[in-house]
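Course assignment 3, question 2. Fill in each field.
Student: A.L.
Task: Predict the tertiary structure for the chain below.
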Amino acid sequence: MVNIRFLRTPGLVGVALASVVGGLAGQFRDPPPPPAYALEGVTVVRPDGRRETGVTVVVRGSLIEALAPDAEVPPGAEVLEGDSLFVYPGLIDANGKVTYEFPKHDDDDDDTVKPWDPPRWRQGFMPHRYVAHHLTATGKGLAAARKNGIVAAAVVPSGTVMPGRVATVIHRAQGEGTALIADPDVGTVFSFRAAQGVYPSTLFGVIAFLRQSFADANREGHVIEAWTRDPHGLTMPAWDPDYATLRATTEGEEPVFFEADLAHDILRVLQLAGELEFSPIIVGGDEAWKVTGDLIAAGVPVLLSTDFGKPTRWKPGSEEPSVDPAAQREQERFENLYANAARLDSAGVQFALTSGGKGDLLTGARKAVEYGLNPIAALRAVTVVPAAMLHLDAVSRLEPEMAATFIVTTGDLFDEKTKVAYTFVEGVLEKGAPIRKQSAVADSTTAGAEVPAANVAGVWTLTMESPAGTLNPDITVEQTGADFTGSGELPFGPMEISGSVSGNAITFTMSIDAGNQAFEIEFSGTVTGNTASGTVALPDGSSSEWSATRKPGEAR
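Answer field:
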């Protein structure tokens, strides 16, 4: 862990932060984009693993104008660094981190609610509800996801037995709420979550409730059909949106995204689906590897969560096996989670990898590859497979005249050292990790040899003076090889850092998200033991100095 506090250096990023804390917001406006972007000499990787080297990609407006080895760079285009980089379809998170907020129902007095006959919102019976109507996500707020290569996601509401309908969003840089929606109605969500203090409050009750709800919905359908055929002697039936949604699932109009992790719960889903005649998609699927035969027989796909959590007793990578029984059980559980995708792939189960609405999709996919998942299967599971499930096929198509929605990486996607350098969403560029070049200056004592990267992992202290006063954020930083990342909170929003170390030279970018404004600050300098110092480039074109000190005992 690394805590970074900013030094009391007058003027350090003060000008940049003034735009957030009140004063100079109008001074820092992004310049207009160029008429076109071009990447020369890239390797284009298709979802089936095919690779084409030496390609030039031209993006004009929202579309891919050219994608070919002999494509010409148009006049006026901004040529991005492309040599040795890789172009992939953008990642699609089929259960993504996209914020929404359903209205709260706090006006009902609990003393007046009948536990055996509560209102539907207390039961969690709202399958008709559109999460698309309640999105709080913004294009700016999705910047971190874009920097990690996510270009689209499904929003899967959760928390109750039938919380509402799934929507898909495009991670556009501008707009908010419905302006991000690709499809407001992909399917509805079910789970075995019981209600609190009212019926159905047990698993047995939830299953009975599901059966009764479908029976009531079908009965209403027969009444409507009878009235439509001949209304004599009948009053016009009332329309019930929840029952109409359930009927749509039995008529094959939309799938049911059913949350289930344990093997016996997945089997319950398959049994109910056969009995009630709906088409399920398993969401979560932690123990799906135990029931692959049943999933294949039923033709049911899985949105497999890679939100694995972190072991607390087992120490991955330890050379000595643990003798602690609890650690051994934890190791077995986590290794089964990590190997889940590889086992589904080997068995022939259709699946997409997801962040689970919490985790990091790319990190989780890399862990699945580490534990046996074929990299091509992994690539398909984060691109074309979720695209097909969510009706987002066009998002994954890398070809001229299609939307310019793709990512550019510094290496093979599932290599842990690879970074996302650029993300395009409908032609709008989001810069990710800086592209590192080898320093032209080498230490005279190590000329011709690779200089080991300094260790910058740990808890640091950095203090910053700003128009809002002294800021003391805590930032957790982790280092892998020469690269490091970190994140933390400022009073006005989150910030992230990403950078690398070459010998003792350090460079990193601090990305600050202040809600209605986001900007980046570039740092460079040197590291000597537990101290670091250098210069920082401010958004207004000026520069200042920075330094930091690592806390004792925090180096890792």
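Instructor remarks: Residues 14-30+438-550 form a domain with the Lipocalin fold (CATH 2.40.128.120). Residues 1-16, 18-28, 437-450 have pLDDT under 50 and may be disordered.
Grade: pending
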